[in-house]
């Protein structure tokens, strides 16, 4: 964090006079991180895991509220827009606070990128040339620590535009629902449509997180991206087989390729909604748009939670009769926070109605975090926690595939 940003945080109450963090402010490497913070907040602060690499996060109670990002140098509009896009994709906190030598800007991190939604996410700008003391006073009145922590901020006109319906989970849910309906409208059975989308999202996770090299795509698919691959049925199933062989043998498996291809017909016409979605087109009117989703930032448990609703809306395998429900992330935290207080890192977790695995995923992340506080974090350690400490059961045949995807 820049020295100028630190001065602003002192004058707005987030740091005390000695520069120490006030209650709720978390810096990278802080020993104040709980198991919940380690799973939810730490990725925001990590320079290895996120291009956002936030300077600090402020929480009220157990809920992250503000992501702080600063720079000693002027920041381009494109770079700042990308910071906001990442903050929105993380879906953790409603506010992004950006400090530069020229200004302080407060963004609505529950609002999608402007190039996607056509609505600016900027809530307010405080220009430094207006006078430093004046800016500090305005910031303290608008979103100083006391104002935010005591709830006054949320009753102000400044916070009026913050709408949870525009948060990443709700937007992605609407997009996936429209995509599913479009595939079914093309004549694809809901159960297959669900698998197709699941495989494609899994591939995007791999690609965005760097597990699929451009050279691999060049060798196997002539350098084509996912959207182009989905316009060719043979290439599409070559990709699906490669994903299965390379990464996870039982994730949305191809149980009968010929039967699937019979459903899809002789060409890839029925896959057009999928190609459009990943090709940055609106699937309803095929108008170009920015693809707003960054799967290297979207928390995997968010996808798991969305899939519960997604499976339910697919109306396959009897889910509508079996009571599949969408579980918001904040509800998961509310249920798990007291459970993990003082919990042994070697404890085992069982969810006897696991659905898409949203509680299991968050439990896994917290257990791994607890284990990492005692020993060096390795792939073998993560595998051990997954295989020995996580158990889930569900009556729905579709649920275990989604839970496996998430875990």
Runs in which pLDDT lies below 50 for 5 or more consecutive residues are 315-322
Radius of gyration: 22 Å
> How do the helices and strands follow one another from N- to C-terminus?
HEHHEEHEEHEHHHHHHHHHHHHEHHEH
Cross-sheet strand order for the largest sheet: 1-2-3-4-5-6
End-to-end span in angstroms? 34 Å
Number of strands: 8
- Rough outline: globular
Q: Which structural class best describes the helix and strand composition?
A: alpha/beta
Number of helices: 20
Which assembly state applies to the chains in this document?
single chain
Biggest sheet layout: 6 strands, mixed
Secondary structure: helix percent? 40-55%
The chain-level mean pLDDT equals 84
Strand content: 5-15%
What can you see in these coordinates?
- The structure is a single chain.
- Strand 4 (95-99) and strand 5 form a beta hairpin.
- Mean pLDDT is 84; it is low at 315-322.
- By secondary structure, this protein is α/β, with parallel strands linked by helices.
- The protein is built from 20 helices and eight strands.
- The longest helix has 19 residues, at 190-208.
- The chain is globular.
- Helix 15 (300-314) packs antiparallel against helix 18 and helix 17 packs across helix 18.
Summarize the structure.
The strands form 2 sheets. A 6-stranded mixed beta sheet has the order 1-2-3-4-5-6, with helices on both faces. It has a two-stranded parallel sheet with strand order 7-8. It contains 20 helices and 8 strands. The protein has 407 residues and is of the alpha/beta class.
